[in-house]
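Hi R.,

Here are the chain sequences for the assembly we discussed:
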Amino acid sequence: MRVRVKFEKTGIMRYVGHLDLMRFFQKAVKRSELPIRYSEGFNPHQIMSFASPLGVGLTSVGEYMDIDLKSEVASVDGLSRLNENMVEGLAITSFKYLPDDAEKCMSAVTAASYVVTYKDTNDDACYIDNIADLKVKFFDEAHEINIVKKTKKGERELDLKPLIYRFNLEIVDGVPIYDLLLSSGSTDNIKPELVIKAFHEFIGLPEFDDLSLDIQRIDMFTGEPDSLISLGDIGDEH
Amino acid sequence: MKKLALSDDILMQIDKPARYIGNEFNSVKKNPADVDIRFAMCFPDVYEVGMSHLGIAILYDMLNKREDTYCERVYSPWPDLHNLMKERNIPLFALESQDAIRDFDFIGMTLQYEMCYTNILQILDLAQVSLLTAERKNDDPIVIVGGPCATNPEPIADFVDLVYVGEGETSYPKLLELYKEHKKAGFDRAAFLRAASKIPGIYVPSLYEVTYKESDSTIESFKPIYDDVPAVIERQVVKDMDSSSYPTKMLIPFVRAIQDRVVLEIQRGCIRGCRFCQAGMIYRPNREKSVDILKEQAKELLASTGHEEISLSSLSSSDYHALGELMDFLIDDCLSEGVNVSLPSLRIDAFSLDVMSKVQDVRKSSITFAPEAGSQRMRNVINKGLTVEDIIGGATLAFKGGWNKVKLYFMLGLPSETDEDMQAIPRLANDIAAAYYDTVPKEQRQGRCQITISTSFFVPKPFTPFQWAPMYEAGEYLRRAKVVNDEMKAQLNQKSLKYNWHHSDVTVLEGVFARGDRRLCPAILDAYKNGCFFDAWGDFFDFDKWLAAFEKNNISIDFYAYRQRDLDEILPWDFINCHVTKDFLKREWNNAMNAKVTPNCKMNCNGCGAGIIGSGVCHNAR
Ligand code: SF4
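And here is the predicted structure of the full complex:
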């Protein structure tokens, strides 16, 4: 039986990379003595998979991991046993049994939502008075948003418009806060930095440092753009 | 969120920021306001190396069991962070609290290898603590070092306040109590150091004076400045391994450490008496843990860490009295849950091959032999109790069991080594390859066998029978490697053989430090100031800078490394009583020169001196 575990990665845990996080969870699952299933073969490993990796420096309140169990554990139990084995900055928020036909979280992701702010309120972008109007021109009124995306194989032209499902901008205490819903997963994985960079260029701030942004992933979704469903809404507590 | 010593901006531009944030599972958190003593325990190398060290794990756990002490960890910042810390004047901090260690009571460092000496200076420099003990003030931390290199602490005598000689479990409680008393009474550094010098195993370099002979610049005298300071320092030894402090939890690093597994120490010391091996001498006598304690510790540690591998720590695992029982337990009770056992330092025989075939994939793994020398004469010189029959026999058994990869470790530049001894190395490898083709029928072979020869260069170490031996110049080491390489190409089975050798510049420097005296201190300081650190890492090692520092300070490499010492010379470490007597070492040196083998401690006591401690193999029935 497969369990979907939702967790948060916040605070200082932002400096721990994806591979290191996976190793942390392998040991945490082992310590929590959940009846996890191992793969067959000479070097058995836990059957465990993670949804889209989170880059170093980003935080998230919507991360997912699927694990296979040999026998059932009450969801409240599983949740608390895992939480006893977390560190500051990692917290388990749900433990749900998946239906048999559920797609693995690793391949299921089609979209992700983010909140993006500026680390430093002295950032040039915080001083653009009509930034909200510019955003409307950049996104709401645009038919296409063409950028050049650098890939491993070189550069390619890309139209961002159909891959940005939501681009809201709110000004709180004079500082812009972005609320984004972007195409994610294996085919068109759009990073929030890429979108903000394109916007920065549009508003005339071409010198862009993606480390100036504070990015938090809020959730991950599966399904088609018009009928997205949160990975955390699939399955039931037992 | 917990505060960090480094800003986000710095953490995002350096390699592996998770090295510097602490927060590891099982790390200890205390409120600094609740303790009397703050201790920064440091391994002067990069995080991944330091986090793998068992000694630190033992001391960290032991010190933190005390309510009055908060022990935190520090590792050497990698050069990328080093530069930023210097540039922005950020003081070095401890991982747990992220507080600057210059405000701590103690900075403790373990010295596992000589090449970390400049890293000691890096730690002090980044901590913003004076590099020289003479310049430290009352409110500076007490800098204390321990570990195997502390058996000759003289090359770093100017930099450290205290040296702990021997096993940390023994005298630390006394030292901390003394410190507390002095702190309460209004701390006076000089008075504390003087009082500390009377604790068994504690050496205070600044309280001793050395004079040198004009004729040959060897030591004329070495004595304490004051009458009440002991002239001889006794190495501290744990008598009962079962009751001695061992952690039930170990820290789980985020960044993958060198040892990503539970380490279970099964015994200390070694019965074998290889003449080149410092560990085999300075950890005498051999003391075993009981198998029941080990079973308990193994279970606890696996449960508290979630590691999927357990490794036995020992200088020679095969000699542990109940290895069979322990292995059965580990395989039956732990393997079923996806846990692996790794078994370093095993002698290859039917028993160990059987165990290995149960715990690892025969097709992927290789069999390791450390004959250390190619010819039987040379193996007798070094007292490696291993015959060619043992080696070929073991390899043949392994080939029958399905292995076809063999790794062989040797040393070059051993005392009295001739070209013939070196040529014996590839010939031995060739014979092993031949044994494969004789043993395994053609139709069962998975291609060729692979025999890998690795050689490192021998460095004479204090408290070994070879402590008087000369070394060679760097070029001579390369010539020796070439002799091996040429001979390898002449072997019938050369296509099955592969040869790797280590570089030699570092070897010479290691040799200088290993047997150095306090006259080296200014050169080490200059080398550090000129940018030498992380010398143990090939990429950063700059021999020319070292040569310049030696020249400036009139240090002759010849004197420290290449010279044959007289058996009666006063050696810089003679003031330490390691419990292995000089008479025994001399006897062993003479036996070496006559290629005479000395039996191991279980066969026969050879009266090395360690019997005086009253524990372990010397007192058990043979
Ligand atoms: S006293 Fe004898 S048995 Fe004990 S360590 Fe020395 S040689 Fe071995």
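Chain A has a mean pLDDT of 93. The pocket of iron/sulfur cluster is lined by residues B 284-285, 601, 605-608, 610-611, 617-618 (CB under 6 Å).

Let me know if anything looks off.

Best,
T.
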